[in-house]
Structures are given as C-alpha cells and as structure tokens.
C-alpha cells in the first residue's frame, strides 16, 4: 500500500475510509522520530558495544532518492547514507570479518537496482562496491524483505532475501556474506527455499539467531517458519501460524527475548493498527505450535516493519524497546515495559 502523509491519512479516516483509526486504548510511544522526506518502511536496532545508551536505530526511507537514516534514542536524525533507489527493509549483524577486522553491518534491499546494499556501522559507509545483485536469472526480482542470520557455531553471516513477486516454491534466497579480499563484502548464493501463497507478497522476514529459525509474513495467508541454517540441508516448512488472527495483512515481525530460549514473536496486524503476540518457545511443549497470546494496540498507523531488543538502553528503556514504522514518515519507539504490561494482562 502506498504510504500517505499524516494529514491525508487523518482525512481518510475521518471520511470513513477502510483504514482503522488508532484505538483509544493504544499504547503511546515514548519517542516519535523526526519525519523522513518520503516513506518510512522498516527499522533495525544497533546496540553500541560499550555504552548501550548510545545505541542507534536505522530506518529506511523508501523512494527513488531515498536512503538509510540513523536515529539516536531520542529520535533525532544523526546520519544519512548515500542516496539509494527505493530501499525497502533493513537488518543489522555484528562482527563480520573484513580485512582482518570485525565490522558491524546494516544490510538493506534496493528494489530499483535488484541489489542488496551493505554499510558498516556506526559510520554508515558503503562496503559493497556499489551493491550485490540478487535473484539473478529470475524474471521476478524486486527485492523487498531482508533479515540477517548469524550462525552460532562459526559466526558466519547470511542474508535471507524476499521479493515483491516470486514462485510458489523457492521464494526466498539465502546468501552468505564474506570478505571479498579488497575491503568490501561479497555474497554467495547458498540456498533457495520458502513457500508462497501467491495472495499478495512476502516482505517481512525475521531471524531468531539463538533458536535458529526464520519467520516470514506471507501477507493475507499466514506466518511461515523454517530453519535458518543452510547447513541443515532441510527446507521443511516447520509451521504456518496466524492465519485467522489478522484483519488483512500479516506484516512486520519482531522478536523479543526474555531468556535465551523464551520470549515473544510480535507481528504487525497492519490494517488494525495492532500487534499480534505469539510465544517464541511455542505452546504446550511444541516449539512449532504458535498460538496468539495477546493483541497489543499501538499508536502506529499501517505498520510495515518492526524490531525489538531486550537490552537495557538507559532510564527511558530499562528493559529494552520496541520500534515500529508508522505512516507520517516516522518511527515510534515504545518502552518494552508498556508492551509487557499488556501481554501480562491478556495472558492471565
């Protein structure tokens, strides 16, 4: 759906358009970022290695002359990448080995060039020699969703990429990122997997590094679950859930970890302006049974992308925060404590 300015969105709501208004019981964000020029779409959180209060949020501005923007925890824009041609989703990974050094990275899809773009953090400098083409040889390319998986056994980093259109099988392609030898990043295709209903698109992708799963939102169908590690050589679809829990589109996915193996999967119920919550560890001892345990109304409008962290980010976000894109060209930062309070209330 094309994003609207806040003014036009409020006008449509007042005229009875199908877009849902923000509910009166919606959680209010602790911070709303400075607006971007065009169209926010997806956030990622980078945790500062020495002082978590200096952590950053990276967000996409989705337009032909868009880019990645970096916000501090007060929502102020502090940096912008070089111009990107319609960046869509973004994710962050840590300690990619380049030239003998460990480099944190942000990776985004660039739809109009059919590439992924890779930037070092926190300086947001390109380290991809102009970008890496994806879905080469395919008729339908248009990369949209992306999530990064870091394998615990060896620290290898993989990009799992989705697209606007694609086949009913092998909709997702997975690339291993590595040092090209000249100070930039190379990518090797290592896997094609993932089913697609054909109803709309798969944009939102999220990886649980510790448990080794990848989740993707097949919009208007359900949330699909697979193993993240290509070395398993197992493309079995482990679960499809959330098929009856959404007003229309399943969208952005965030994972909040309460321990190494427990927590929550939060999925944007886009047209209802809420987030549907599932147990990260599964239900009734079955790690692949995910039943809705809560629905959280937020002040975000038509949310495409979301992210969460459990890291103490200071007095405003002592138990971490939840970040969600909102129409009006902004991102909303929520105190995790506020989210947890509603989850606890509904779980009782």
How does this structure look, described?
- The chain is mainly β.
- The protein has a single domain (6-347), classed as Neuraminidase, CATH 2.120.10.30.
- Helices cover 6% and strands 44% of the residues.
- It is built from 2 helices and 25 strands.
- The strands form 6 sheets. Strands 6, 7, 8, 9 and 10 form a 5-stranded antiparallel β-sheet that branches. Strands 1-25-24-23 form a 4-stranded antiparallel β-sheet.
- β13 and β14 form a beta hairpin.
- Residues 5-17 have low confidence and may be disordered.
- This is 3-phytase.
- It comes from Flavobacterium lacus.
- One of its GO terms (molecular function) is inositol hexakisphosphate 3-phosphatase activity.
- Pfam families: Phytase.
Poorly predicted runs of 5 or more residues: 5-17
In total, how many domains does the architecture comprise?
Answer: 1
Please give the count of helices: 2
Strand content range? 35-45%
Radius of gyration: 19 Å
The CATH architecture assignment turns out to be 6 Propeller
Tell how many strands the DSSP assignment holds: 25
Q: How helix-rich are the residues, as a percent range?
A: under 10%
Quick tags:
mainly beta; Neuraminidase; 25 strands; B-propeller_Phytase; four-stranded antiparallel β-sheet; five-stranded antiparallel β-sheet; single chain; 6% helix; 348 residues; 3-phytase; 6-blade_b-propeller_TolB-like
């Amino acid at each position: 759906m094309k994003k609207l300015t806040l003014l036009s969105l409020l006008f449509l709501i007042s005229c009875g358009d199908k877009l849902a208004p923000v509910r009166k019981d919606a959680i209010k964000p602790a911070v709303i970022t400075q607006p971007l020029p065009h169209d926010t779409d997806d956030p990622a959180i980078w945790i500062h290695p020495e002082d978590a209060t200096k952590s950053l949020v990276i967000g996409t501005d989705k337009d032909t002359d868009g880019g990645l923007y970096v916000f501090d925890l007060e929502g102020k824009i502090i940096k912008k990448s070089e111009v990107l041609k319609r960046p869509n989703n973004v994710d962050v990974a840590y300690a990619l080995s380049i030239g003998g050094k460990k480099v944190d990275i942000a990776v985004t899809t660039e739809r109009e060039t059919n590439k992924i773009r890779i930037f070092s953090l926190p300086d947001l400098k390109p380290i991809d020699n102009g970008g890496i083409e994806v879905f080469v040889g395919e008729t339908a390319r248009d990369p949209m969703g992306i999530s990064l998986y870091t394998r615990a056994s060896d620290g290898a980093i993989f990009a799992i990429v989705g697209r606007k259109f694609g086949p009913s099988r092998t909709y997702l392609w997975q690339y291993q990122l590595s040092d090209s030898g000249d100070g930039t990043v190379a990518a090797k295709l290592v896997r094609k997997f993932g089913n697609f209903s054909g109803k709309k698109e798969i944009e939102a992708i999220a990886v649980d590094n510790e448990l080794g799963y990848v989740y993707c939102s097949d919009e208007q169908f359900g949330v699909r679950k697979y193993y993240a590690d290509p070395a398993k050589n197992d493309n079995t679809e482990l679960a499809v859930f959330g098929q009856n829990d959404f007003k229309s589109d399943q969208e952005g996915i965030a994972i909040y970890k309460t321990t190494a193996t427990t927590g929550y999967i939060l999925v944007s119920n886009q047209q209802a302006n809420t987030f549907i919550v599932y147990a990260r560890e599964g239900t009734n001892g079955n790690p692949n049974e995910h039943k809705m345990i809560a629905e959280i109304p937020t002040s975000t409008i038509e949310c495409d992308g979301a992210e969460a962290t459990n890291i103490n980010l200071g007095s405003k976000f002592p138990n971490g925060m939840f970040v969600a894109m909102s129409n009006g060209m902004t991102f909303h930062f929520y105190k995790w404590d506020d989210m947890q309070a509603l989850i606890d209330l509904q779980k009782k």
